[in-house]
Design goal:
Blueprint: H1 2-5, E1 12-13, H2 25-36, H3 49-63, E2 72-75, H4 78-89, E3 95-100, H5 104-112, E4 116-121, H6 133-138, E5 144-150, H7 162-175, E6 178-182, E7 208-213, E8 226-229, H8 232-243, H9 251-263, H10 265-287, E9 292-294, E10 302-307, H11 313-324, E11 326-327, E12 329-330, E13 341-345, H12 350-364
Parallel strand pairs: 1-11, 3-4, 3-5, 5-6, 6-7
Antiparallel strand pairs: 2-8, 7-8, 9-10, 10-13, 12-13
Helix pairs in contact: 2-9, 3-9, 4-5, 4-8, 10-12
Length: 365
């Protein structure tokens, strides 16, 4: 899609999963100050102590229970964290059971290593998406290394319930497999401060790995900074694997991350309020278009919708961009379960979003 229309004059690009807002000034100033202070050298593989401590403190407050700094590792993005975790767990012939539709990097990281990504699809409904736990658990066998859950989810906006997560954790404990939670949209939620998390209930030595990122809640997509929370002993393994990949995230970016964590709550509240208004606008406008079948998102900043009569989402997305100059992501990008669907990222200004919907309406009504 981007090759078809990237940089076209007048394009409204709603295909990527990022805000159109620049990273807040207080974060940019922290990075500049860190460079001026000479923070340009290598760091420990698991991150600078200041950032690990900041993440530990932040998560403790968010989840209402301590998250010891020994469990925290810093990575060069959430993407890198996913790859590092899969490198630590998956050998050829192993499998990881994943909840789909799903951002493709998660499945691809498994398959790059010779593993199998076993897909268990969410079920759409008028009240939202739902997960069939019986099907999820039945997909596991003696070569299953982990269950991978992205909640809140990309592209669906589905959010796992606390009961879902408790059942998954109990199953993984019994089976001796890992529960991996991609929680990068944890703060982009519209009816509470944060989405339910395995960290709300997991004990320090439980087989739980939580992956997160600075990209979404703090508008830091280009900075490439994330973190992993896992049992303390696993952190040492992650640090060794990181040595062979990145040898630590960029030094002055980590100092900017400290500022984001410690001073960023007002900005997070502001950006979520903007996204809530954008979600309501998109649900109202798309929901009124005759050909659209939309399951309203509970969280994240995507509208994932089906269009009557569309069986080739990539071809249709290319037709849309050719005729309207609005860029959407084709559902097939998120696996076979997404065929016939489109993803619209509404993390953009109200005026720009309204213009995009005006352009789309003639094709979707």
């Amino acid at each position: 899609m981007t090759e078809a229309a990237f940089g076209r004059p007048g394009i409204i690009p709603l295909w990527f999963g990022e805000s159109d807002r620049v990273t807040p000034d207080f974060i940019r100033r922290a990075a500049a100050q860190a460079m001026q202070n000479g923070h340009t050298f290598y760091t420990p593989n698991r991150g600078i102590p200041e950032l690990r401590a900041a993440v530990s403190e932040y998560l403790g407050k968010l989840h209402g229970r301590p998250v010891d700094v020994a469990r925290v590792s810093i990575t060069a993005s959430g993407v890198s964290a996913i790859m590092l975790v899969m490198q630590s767990l998956v050998d050829a012939g192993d499998n990881v059971v994943i909840v789909t539709p799903l951002w493709p990097n998660c499945a691809d990281a498994i398959e790059i290593l010779g593993g199998e990504a076993r897909r268990v699809a969410l079920v759409p409904g008028p009240g939202g998406w739902s997960l069939d736990l019986d099907r999820l658990f039945a997909a596991c066998d003696d070569r299953t290394r982990a269950i991978f859950v992205n909640s809140p989810g990309n592209p669906t906006g589905w959010m796992a319930s606390s009961d879902d997560l408790a059942a998954i954790l109990a199953f993984c404990r019994r089976r001796g497999i890992w529960a991996i939670a991609d929680e990068v949209y944890q703060r982009i939620v519209y009816d509470r401060r944060a989405a339910p998390s395995l960290l709300d209930i997991a004990e320090p030595d439980d087989p739980v790995i939580s992956i997160n990122s600075f990209s979404k809640a703090w508008c830091m997509t280009g900075w490439r900074l994330g973190w992993v929370v896992a049992p303390p002993a696993y952190g040492d393994v992650l640090g060794k694997i990181n040595e062979f990949n990145m040898s630590g995230a960029t030094t002055f970016v980590q100092h900017a991350g400290v500022a984001a964590i410690r001073d960023g709550e007002p900005f997070v509240a502001e950006i979520v309020a903007q996204y809530r208004q954008a979600r309501d606008l998109v649900v109202q406008r798309l929901g009124a278009m005759r050909r659209v079948r939309l399951t309203p998102p509970a969280a994240a900043f995507y509208a994932f919708f089906r269009v009557d009569g569309v069986s080739d989402s990539l071809a249709f997305a290319k037709e849309i961009v050719a005729r309207t100059n609005v860029g959407l992501a084709p559902g097939i990008a998120f696996g076979p379960e997404g065929e016939g669907w489109l993803r619209l990222c509404f993390a953009t200004s109200p005026a720009r979003l309204s213009e995009a919907l005006d352009r789309l309406e003639p094709m979707l009504s």
